[in-house]
Amino acid sequence: MQCKDKTRNYGIRMVYMVENKFTILIVEDDEQINDALKIHLLKKGYNAIQAYDGKEALDKFTSKMVDLILLDISLPEIDGMQVLKQVRTVSDVPIIMLTAFSKEYDKLKGFDLGADDYITKPFSFKEVIARIQAVLNRVKKSNVPQTAYINIGKIRINSVTREVFLDNTEILLTKKEFDLLFTFVNNHNITFSREKLLEKIWNNKDINDFRTVDTHIKQLREKLGCEKGCIQTVWGVGYRLKVTKNE
């Protein structure tokens, strides 16, 4: 692809597509309970993914788009508390714990690790559905999620799946490269210093390795090809995504 216009202006256009269903990951080693939960969720219009142990739960969470996790505490391979702890290191996805225990200590431990709610066995499926709806309403603020597609010139970004396309061809970005691009897009016309980007993207206020930022910006620009001009260098300050008008 040849770059014919190196000086053109960039605008941002948001395209919203409504998704009708939330996806729930059910993590329960009792197959009958797991299957029954899936049946009731499907009847209520949810998508459902099933996992029967902690390892499978983590594998499916990392490979699928999940809106909420129903997570049993007593699981083979990796127990529910460890699954909760590992998920919370990378995501704030809502998690409702399923437990046969009603001890205050167990609940407090789960909440300390980041659980959003608890359901004690035996439970009614109506209660489970009601709790799911309540948590999603509280955390998502809406029963209908919207997937925002952001267009910048020939660049198209899916903010949910973290996919980026250039001229309808997917370009593969690393996590940090996507985080950089998405930060610029959501804060267009704002200049970020290297220190601020290290803090925001790398979650570190203490390191001063500005070459890390410069290297990632260079790699990101190379992958954006002819559209690399959307990310501007502000000499002596940092970087920004310059938008002159909304398309």
TrEMBL record:
TM ranges: none
This protein's UniProt keywords: DNA-binding, Phosphoprotein, Transcription, Transcription regulation, Two-component regulatory system
Pfam families: Response_reg, Trans_reg_C
Sequence ranges assigned to domain OmpR/PhoB-type in this UniProt record: 147-243
The entry's DNA-binding region: 147-243
SMART domains: REC, Trans_reg_C
Positions of modified residues (4-aspartylphosphate): D72
GO BP terms, alphabetized: regulation of DNA-templated transcription
Gene3D superfamilies linked: 3.40.50.2300, 6.10.250.690, Winged helix-like DNA-binding domain superfamily/Winged helix DNA-binding domain (1.10.10.10)
Alphabetical list of CDD domains matching this protein: trans_reg_C
Molecular functions per Gene Ontology: phosphorelay response regulator activity; transcription cis-regulatory region binding
Response regulatory domain ranges (all copies): 23-136
Function: May play the central regulatory role in sporulation. It may be an element of the effector pathway responsible for the activation of sporulation genes in response to nutritional stress. Spo0A may act in concert with spo0H (a sigma factor) to control the expression of some genes that are critical to the sporulation process.
Name of this chain's protein: Stage 0 sporulation protein A homolog
